[in-house]
Structure of PHP domain-containing protein:
Amino acid sequence: MYQIEVDPHTHSLVSLHAYSTVEECARHAAERGLRGIAVTDHCSLIMAQRENSVEAILNQQVLPDRIGGVRVWKGVEIDIVDYEGHLAFEDVPDQFRPGMTGAQVLLPTRDVVIASVHTPFDRDENRGDVEKNTRMYCAALENPYVNILGHSGRSNHPYELRPVLETAKRLHKMIEINSASLGTHAERAGKACRSIAEACRDLGVKITVSSDAHSAFQVGEFSAAIAMLESIGFPQSLIANRTVESFEAALAESRRG
Ligand SMILES: [Zn+2]
Ligand SMILES: [Zn+2]
């Protein structure tokens, strides 16, 4: 059984379709024996706070760094919005800071940035274009502010594993193994998640294991991911969030690129 002390991907009420406060998430984390959570609400033009995402998340500064003994990192899950790997708000002028985009305001000051594809920006025929998806994920990883590539196994954008994972390795970025993808979404995502994990194991790419909790009751719920990782003999040393210290170190490394 793996030791995992940190849940690096959780949502609070700020995501609007999530159901718990940050305090509730931290308290449930403590009850489960975790030592840290990252609050990574959605920064998106299509869901959550939409055009107000940047301001909503920017105000994480009012939160303490620790709640009930649990380290709380202030983060964001930001949408990848096109096949060039651009992120939400990269071309949207900030409402209050002239000359800056929303992404320029938000991303450099977050502790954790997860980049994920959500509701497809391309609704139909191109989603299966492996070459385009591969370029998209590589470009998102090249963004200096991105630390983690989120749930790439369940976003309906199949990609070539080696170039994406080698980009992650070169830049010391993390690939997320999202337990919700292997639980709720297992039927459509299970196989892809397993292939991604096997390739990370073989290439020596660091992963994060996350709950993607949308309520406090799901914080630290890693069981589906752990079962899969154990079945493929995934080395604990490549799980970046196994301890608070290893997660901090992996974040610092990913910022250096
Ligand atoms: Zn997501
Ligand atoms: Zn999420």
